[in-house]
Amino acid sequence: MTLFSLFWLILAFVVGALPFSVWFGKLFLRQDVRSVGDSNPGATNAWKMGGWRLGFPVLLLDFLKGAIPVGIAYQVWGWEGALLLAISLAPILGHDFSPFLGGRGGKGLATTFGVWTGLTLAQAPVILGLSMALFLWLRIRDGWAIVFSMLLLLLDLVLWPHPPIFLAVWLATSVLLVWAYRRKLHLPIRRASNPHE
Q1: What tens digit of pLDDT does each residue of 164-179 get?
Q2: Which has the closest alpha carbon to 166: 102, 92, 115, 130?
Q3: Could you say which DSSP state residue 192 is in?
Q4: Cβ–Cβ under 8 Å, residues 178 and 185
Q5: For the residues 41-53, what does the mean pLDDT come to?
Q6: pLDDT by residue (tens digit) across 109-158?
Q7: DSSP secondary structure string, the chain?
Q8: Which is nearest to 111 in space by CA: 131, 134, 129, 88?
Q9: What is the per-residue pLDDT for 194?
Q10: Contact 72, 87 (CB under 8 A)
């Protein structure tokens, strides 16, 4: 590992750790987005508190935290192997365990989408996005919808020619998502007909 690659990894972690939802919520609403929902400092709570005007910019920035450093490292510089795995995890780990929030960050879903966009361009995010939309439409709870969508992504990674290191990235990102959504995975897979449940 060169000094430059180490710098890029650290930068990706630090950028991933930037809590845009918390900062924007306090700047524009004078409120803490962690005070609603599941106290998660992420785009979902930003959307709940400030609507699309706050939620969309936060969602986009959280996505770009993963897409830009990984896309440059893989698509432009051709990183591979363990170095590619490390850069793929750096922004997600930064987001999930943000030092700006005392190690308590968000769930990292948008940043994970960004990472997979950096690796596969449109392929993985289309698979994840469409499958999650389908599972949510079928009233599958969001935590389980994410798990099932990641399993469909695994199927794509196995059937489509991808670098073998992508399987390690898939395993690591799946573990991080399962950890982030662990409380919701204790609930039944399907939601009841009552929308307030």
Answers
A1: 999 999 999 999 999 9
A2: 115
A3: P
A4: yes
A5: 82
A6: 999 999 999 999 999 999 999 999 999 999 999 999 999 999 999 999 99
A7: --HHHHHHHHHHHHHHH--HHHHHIIIIISS-GGGSTT---SHHHHHHHHHHHHHHHHHHHHHHHHHHHHHIIIIIT---HHHHHHHHHHHHHHHHT-GGGTT-----HHHHHHHHHHHHTTHHHHHHHHHHHHHHHTTB-HHHHHHHHHHHHHHHHHHS---THHHHHHHHHHHHHHHHTTTGGGS-SBPPS-TT-
A8: 88
A9: 55
A10: no
In degrees and rounded to multiples of 5, residue 140 shows phi and psi of -80, 135
- Length reported for the chain: 197
Place of tokens 């432009």: 76
Dig out the tokens for 131 from the structure: 């499958």
> Which tokens is 14 given?
């630090």
Give the amino acid at 131.
S
Structure tokens given for 188 = 């039944």
